[in-house]
Amino acid sequence: MKRLLIIIIITMSGTALSGQKHSSSTGNSTTQNPNSGYVNINEIQYGYGTGSNSTPYTHQFLGITTLHGYQLNIMGLHINRSLLLLGGTGVLFYGSDPLLPFYLDIRYIWNYRKISPFIFGDSGLLLNTREINHGTKIFIHPGAGIKIKILGPLAASIGAGLNIQMGPDVSRATFLNLSAGIVFKPE
Description:
The protein contains 2 helices and 8 strands. It is mainly β. It has one domain (37-184): Porin (Beta Barrel), CATH 2.40.160. It has an 8-stranded antiparallel beta barrel. A hairpin with a 4-residue loop joins strand 2 (60-74) and strand 3 (79-94). The radius of gyration is 23 Å and the shape is extended. Mean pLDDT is 81; it is low at 22-33.
């Protein structure tokens, strides 16, 4: 019993010592997150249907979307500033009929320079306001792109991906999706 108590005390003291704050050579605290914060992305979307165009909403779409979220920089959890978690909405026109997307977006950006590549994944609902029960779809949209720094808090974003949609009648539509927009990240 005495040995067990000594092992627990040594383990606890070692844990407490390793959890102490170390001073950095730059003088910055590990609790400061200079690159964390709000991000807004406004994009123009175009989708070209790659499959059969015999069913409604499978030819092409054009629309605008807006994403609002947070750029993470949680040093203690080893999450760096490359990860963005966003929520989005907008309007996509399939001919004259609009569908309203509501979705989550995750982006990972490499090497923050003048031109930075990124990958993303979107998933959510496409709400058909005219036929909510039979026209609403779910979608997934993986892709990649580049972010080009303009000046200060503004950057341009250009991306491409594959947008896969599925409705309640088990009809599936696939689109080659192109997007271009402006990224706003306050400094």
